[in-house]
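Practice problem 4.
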């Protein structure tokens, strides 16, 4: 199974187009969206190419491939534009190995406030806009960063990819920023 992760699009159409293009090129089975899809939020500047309706229209074309969770900037009004569900605070992907990936945005559940998980399970979240792929205690904490407002060192927009047992964060030039084996 191959999964593509993106978070914190914040209504930027150019960033969303880059996500879709890279997702399609990766030939991943699913596009995992970890929240903050359409709105930029009160603490962020208006993003380049801000176009909420355009972002929704583009994402809706791939709705059958998307698994999404609600970010702190996502609302019922945003859901009205999207043809896939985004209002759940979390979702779970079961891997063929029996491990879980707990999908959430990060404002409710995160590395510091974890749900009950087994050793080796993954917490995948966005929210901080900082890339992470590492063991923290008994779980793997994974954050693909942000496609629109990256805050990781170097400030490069990024995404995540699970390919077999390799869980990686990459920039859009294909450089691996963080990586871990499941």
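Answer key:
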């Amino acid at each position: 199974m191959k999964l593509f992760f993106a978070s914190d699009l914040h209504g930027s159409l150019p960033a969303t187009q880059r996500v879709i293009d890279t997702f399609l090129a990766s030939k991943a089975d699913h596009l995992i969206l970890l929240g903050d899809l359409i709105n930029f939020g009160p603490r962020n500047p208006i993003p380049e190419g801000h176009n909420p309706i355009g972002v929704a229209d583009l994402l809706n074309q791939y709705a059958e491939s998307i698994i999404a969770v609600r970010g702190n900037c996502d609302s019922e009004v945003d859901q009205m534009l999207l043809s896939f569900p985004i209002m759940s605070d979390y979702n779970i992907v079961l891997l063929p190995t029996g491990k879980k990936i707990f999908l959430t945005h990060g404002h409710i559940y995160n590395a510091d406030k974890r749900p009950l998980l087994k050793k080796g399970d993954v917490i995948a979240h966005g929210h901080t806009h900082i890339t992470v792929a590492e063991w923290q205690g008994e779980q793997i904490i994974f954050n693909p960063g942000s496609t629109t407002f990256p805050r990781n060192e170097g400030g490069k927009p990024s995404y995540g990819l699970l390919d077999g047992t390799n869980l990686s964060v990459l920039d859009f030039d294909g450089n691996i920023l963080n990586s871990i084996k499941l």
